[in-house]
Each structure stands twice: as C-alpha cells, then as structure tokens.
What does this fold into?
Amino acid sequence: MPIQKVLCATALTSWPNDNAVFDSRQLLDSTYRPVVVLDSGVGGLTLVRQLEQLAPEVSILYVADNGWFPYGSKSVATVACRVQQLLDQVCTRVDPLAVVIACNTASIALIDHGRVPFTKGYFLVTPPLEEAVRASANGKIALLATLGTIKSKHISTTLAKARTRAQIWPIAAQRLVELSEYKLAGQPTSLACFSELIDRHLTTGQRLEIDTVILGCTHFPHLLGDLKTLFPSAIKWIDPAKEVALQIASSIKINISTLGPPPRTVIFTSMPGTRNSQHAFSNYGFHAAYSFLT
Ligand code: DGL
It folds into this structure.
C-alpha cells in the first residue's frame, strides 16, 4: 500500500478533510529521531506507557494499522507480510532510534515466517512463558492471547517446553481485543461473554487456582482491572511490554530537546474508525495524526 499520499491533521480534535503529503522532515531531524511503535490498534499504548516512565524524553511515531485490525484472526502469513511491508515503508521515511513491534501476534508471525529483522534496534513483544513458569508458585498459569498467537508454531514449541514444569492453559481471547478498543474509546464494556469463553477452557476450580496470568496481547493490560475479577487468585500478571520497554530505554541514546516535549505522532492506515481512537491517543499525548490513504 503506498504511503506517499496521506491525510494529516495537526490535532486529534480536528480531523483532516484535505489531502496532504506526509511530512517526515520533523521526524528525520536528529533531535526527534523517534521510536517507531507498531500495533493493529490501541494495544501498543500499553508499551508506550511503560516506555514513557523509563524514557520520557523519547519521541514516538506510532503506526496503528487499523485498516488491518484485528491481526489475531488473520493467518500468520498474512500478518507477517503486512507488517514487513509497513515497516519497510515507514523506515524509508524516518530514521528511527528503535522499532518495536508492540503486538504479540505480529511479532510471532514474523518469527514463524523467519522474517525477524535481526538488525540492531528492533524489538519484539512476545508472551514470556519461561518468566511465568518462574513466577508461579503453584505452577497454574493462564496464557491469554489472540487466536493467531495461540495457533502459532512459536507458541506450540515454547508451550511444549514450559509444560514440563507447569500447567498452562492457553486461551484464545480474541474478543478481548475488541473490548479493549471499545474501552479506550470511552464506550461501556462488559467481560460477561469472555467469562463464558473461559468456562469452556477451565472448570471453576481450575480458574480459581490460577496464580499467574500471562497478558499475551498488548491490548489486554488495558483490561487488567476487569480480568482481576475473573482470576481472583492470580497474584502475578505477566506483561512482556515492561521488559521490552526496559530493553529499549537502555539501548537508545536520546538527544534531550530544548524545544519542549518530544513529539508523539500516530499514523493510522485507514481513515474510517479513527474517530473512535482519538480519545485514547490524545489521552496518551499524541497531538498529531496522519492517516494513509488506502
Ligand atoms: N495487540 C495485538 C497483540 O499483542 C493483537 C491485536 C489484534 O488482534 O489485532 O497480539
């Protein structure tokens, strides 16, 4: 998909209706070399929240691939090609300090298809099964992730290894991705349908014994409060974004800007639906928005 033609806005509160060309000059400025964060929607904001605590001076260019949302119900091959294509396009226009695939589904799709860019400065978010096994006191663990993640080769292999030391229940919780989008858009959400889905995987007794939950999708930490009611005995909530944010913060060198707060820009890949995300992105300090024409 060409990204030469984009719509742009200077503020999330006023959306563009004129065509303009994406201007990457500001982002190419060495003062503002951004960290590129990619996700299908608002999931990557959970990583942004972690990163801003460790590196508040960093500029962020967020690619929200809303045109292809959700990734989790698409084939891993499709997602891998799509993400590769987006990254190639974005990286021809900006010179990022780091690129983070803030999406477990996309990271795993790249791994499954041997497309991981093994160059310095690339970071993937994946469900840390080993960390969960170490953290769990009773070896009863739930892995919440998208359908694509649960079905992936990478997860089957890592699950097989981890299951020699713990009982792990993988739960494809695709519905939670949408609920997370609704929640951040300020709409009412209920996890009632999700609790029915859990009942298909676990007996009540098993659910109440779970002491560790892996948040295997970056959308899920947005729903942490609701999830805690479903797993009342869980004391460890494993969110891989924390560790990845630490790795990014310790690997980048930032030129502290004297020009005020670093810019945060969000690029949407499709115009329809972006209004729902304005609220979420503006709450996270994203003042400018660009949208590709598809
Ligand atoms: N946030 C993405 C993840 O971490 C998935 C969302 C989707 O299904 O598009 O897996």
